[in-house]
């Protein structure tokens, strides 16, 4: 794990402190929120909520790999960013995720109200989608479709080649990867 148990506990404490700060700013109590370190990919953090009938579940998820790459930055900015989403969701249901209410709270926290922050992802394990090889009517042209688009094709969606406008046809027959720059060649043995 890229973050130690002590670092995770510190981030949980910082999250609780930001919630307490919002409570003082708005003179309103906010419930503690579960904090998880299970987020993967490029995002540093995520505020999640689920509504099942009358029951609502909230959680903040942090990416331990991204946090470890620049701990000081994420302790201040990412924690404020996700807590601001939580507070704005409770105070202004239906507000835009990075709208004026969120920006105002970020400023009150003393953080820069940015939706995305560029940061170095070197060493961060990133999920890569599989690729499927498709052919169009163009000679010697192959297309690589992501797993998402491939599944859509299986459900009936059609994708067209931008050059020849013909429908793309899967040539993988269940094989999950391709090199879209390679060309098929006939070989003799």
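^ Assign residues to that structure.
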């Amino acid at each position: 794990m890229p973050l130690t148990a002590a670092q995770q506990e510190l981030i949980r404490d910082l999250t609780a402190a930001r919630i307490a700060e919002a409570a003082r700013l708005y003179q309103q109590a906010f419930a503690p929120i579960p904090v998880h370190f299970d987020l993967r990919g490029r995002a540093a953090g995520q505020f999640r909520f689920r509504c099942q009938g009358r029951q609502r579940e909230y959680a903040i998820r942090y990416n331990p790999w991204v946090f470890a790459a620049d701990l000081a930055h994420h302790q201040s900015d990412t924690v404020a960013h996700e807590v601001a989403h939580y507070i704005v969701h409770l105070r202004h249901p239906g507000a835009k995720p990075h709208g004026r209410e969120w920006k105002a709270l970020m400023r009150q926290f003393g953080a820069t109200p940015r939706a995305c922050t560029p940061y170095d992802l070197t060493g961060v394990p990133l999920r890569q989608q599989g690729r499927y090889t498709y052919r169009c009517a163009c000679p010697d042209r192959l297309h690589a479709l992501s797993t998402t688009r491939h599944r859509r094709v299986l459900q009936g969606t059609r994708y067209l080649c931008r050059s020849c406008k013909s429908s793309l046809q899967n040539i993988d027959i269940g094989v999950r990867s391709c090199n879209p720059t390679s060309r098929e060649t006939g070989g003799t043995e």
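Residues 5-26 form the longest helix (22 residues).
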